[in-house]
Design a protein that fits this description.
The structure holds two protein chains of two kinds.
Chain A: E1 2-3, H1 23-30, H2 40-46, H3 58-67, E2 73-79, H4 88-95, H5 97-111, E3 115-120, H6 125-139, E4 147-151, H7 162-171, E5 187-188, E6 191-197, H8 198-210, H9 212-216, E7 226-233, E8 236-243, H10 248-254, E9 263-266, E10 272-275, H11 285-288, E11 299-303, H12 309-323, H13 329-347, H14 354-365, H15 373-387, H16 389-396
Parallel strand pairs in A: 1-8, 2-3, 2-6, 3-4, 7-11
Antiparallel strand pairs in A: 5-6, 7-8, 9-10, 9-11
Chain B: E1 2-11, H1 21-25, E2 30-32, E3 38-40, E4 45-46, H2 50-62, E5 68-77
Antiparallel strand pairs in B: 1-4, 1-5, 2-3
The chains are: A alpha/beta, B alpha+beta.
Chain lengths: 424, 78
């Protein structure tokens, strides 16, 4: 169950949570949609960065696409949300779907794109229905602009990776692609693709109305605006909207988490661990960089003292290893090997070599996948070895902590269709 | 101004199935990890090194999955 609670800065999240805003409610709250537009200058001045994890400047993507001569262009809204600790895209589309569609519409008009494709994992049936209803409401307005459609690929972890998503739209396979040249061009057929996270689109829907200066009025200079953050703790998952740079302590307290956490998982399962003593650090990439952490897709998981960091890592890495697309050897074989070592460490049996093996394998695997999936896991493991160093040493010495067998903080989805890797 | 030409080999990790022929054909450029997948030398070598270039070519041609390519890097040198 996901609940949000009142906060001072609420831009893209709606005030009510029980139903998606209808088009008339949306226009009453935000103003009419028929004259909305955005220029590349406004987009650049706003300094908006992508909300999906990589924090790439959206204006640069658009400029890059505008420089290319292409007969057709597509705008893709990425609401796949394969990250199990994140709930923000679903929350946005379940309350303010038209704001996301507004952002996609103005970007499509800027790029002269004919169609907008909203991608939602097929497991999220309710969200698909809600977005389809919102698109139908817009259809009756006879707006100038792009056509909208919903696509629903299977919701695996890597399915939301941009090349995997575009590959799905082309070939019905959610497999990440090898892209040796950067910047790489995403293509549907021969058409250029602008792909952004749903939250990015929602923010652009607001920038089109209020301008760049308004957008920059909250947040930090390098990361302006707000972040819709999924907070896990206390056995609950909550979504809160806060300006970038808000101290983590106040994000936690506004999410109703009042305990001092042992550690924080930031950014998601491919993210970074941060020691619980750094609660007063601002939640933005520049403030977190000295600690080797980052905001990622806007996820905070607060691990209480009465839990075992090693066991949590083992569960998460096991999940991530099974979510590998198994295209690249280092990821397909390396991640399960790391998961095995972590499992051995949790029980503390036969784990004497495991710690050094985790470190050496991290160096071997890093950077050798076609996508960033293995690199995310390596980052996760490295920061865990750092933050839980003492715990890891105790476990390796055969003295697991008392919580090792009872750890259940992170929510791991059931993986029903995962088979063991077989040689072809 | 002289042009400084170097090369390295790169692998398409999706194509690669870990046959390991590259490590046999170009041991100076490729080592294998514990699962048999190639770890390539990250540094670039001068194009003038004919022996290395020959090894790289053998590895590229010998790959049953055609996963390897030689990447030429041309950098202006003042």
């Amino acid at each position: 169950m996901i609940v949000t609670i009142e906060l001072t800065t609420r831009r893209v999240l709606a005030n009510h949570l029980d139903h998606p805003k209808s088009l008339s409610e949306h226009e009453a709250d935000f103003g009419p949609i028929n004259r909305l537009s955005i220029t590349i200058d406004v987009l650049r001045d706003s300094g908006i960065t992508g909300r999906g994890g990589a924090a790439f400047p959206t204006a640069k993507k658009v400029e890059f696409l505008l420089q290319q001569r292409r007969a057709t262009r597509y705008v893709v809204v990425n609401a796949m949300e394969g990250e199990p600790a994140a709930h923000k895209d679903r929350m946005l589309l379940a309350t303010n779907p038209h704001l996301v569609l507004d952002g996609a519409m103005v970007l499509a008009n800027l790029l002269n794109a004919d169609s907008v494709i909203v991608c939602i994992a097929r497991e999220h049936v309710k969200t698909i229905t809600q977005v389809k209803a919102a698109i139908a409401q817009r259809g009756s307005k006879r707006l100038q602009g792009p056509s909208f459609e919903v696509q629903s690929p299977p919701g695996r972890y890597v399915a939301g990776e941009e090349s995997a998503l575009v590959h799905w739209l082309n070939s019905n396979e959610t497999l990440p692609q090898y892209r040796p040249t950067r910047p790489s061009i995403l293509q549907i057929g021969r058409g250029g693709v602008l792909l952004d996270n749903a939250e990015t689109h929602a923010n652009i829907g607001l920038i089109a109305r209020h301008g760049a200066e308004w957008f920059r009025s909250v947040g930090t200079t390098t990361r302006p605006g707000t972040t819709v953050t999924s907070v896990t703790g206390n056995g609950k998952a909550l979504v809160v909207e806060v300006p970038y740079g808000t101290p983590i302590r106040s994000i936690l307290s506004s999410a109703g988490i009042n305990y001092e956490p042992r550690a924080l998982l930031l950014g998601g399962f491919g993210g970074t661990w941060l020691d619980g003593k750094h609660l007063d650090v601002g939640f933005d990439d520049d403030s977190l960089r000295p600690f080797g952490a980052g905001t990622g897709a806007g996820v905070i998981m607060a691990l209480p003292h009465e839990s075992c960091g090693v066991a949590e890592c083992a569960r998460i890495v096991d999940y991530m290893a099974k979510e590998s697309a198994r295209q690249c050897g280092p990821c397909a074989f390396g991640l399960p090997a790391m998961a095995e070592d972590l499992k051995a460490l949790v029980s503390g049996r036969n784990a004497t070599q495991s710690l050094s093996r985790l470190e050496s394998r991290s160096d071997v695997i890093e950077g050798r996948g076609a996508c960033r999936h293995p690199d995310g896991v390596i980052r996760f493991v490295r920061t865990a070895l750092n933050v839980f160093a003492e715990d890891f040493n105790h476990h390796a010495a055969g003295q697991p902590c008392q919580f090792a067998q009872s750890a259940r903080v992170s929510y791991i989805p059931h993986q029903s269709d995962v088979k063991d890797l077989e040689w072809e | 101004m002289r042009r400084n030409v170097t090369f390295r080999i790169v692998v398409d990790p999706i194509r690669c199935d870990g046959f390991g022929h590259c490590a046999e054909l170009a041991p100076e450029l490729v080592t294998l990890d514990e699962w048999g997948y190639p770890i390539l030398q990250a540094e670039a070598f001068p194009q003038s090194d004919r022996e290395l270039r020959r090894s790289a070519q053998l590895a590229v041609r010998g790959c049953p999955r055609q996963a390897l390519t030689v990447q030429k890097i041309i950098a202006a040198q003042s």
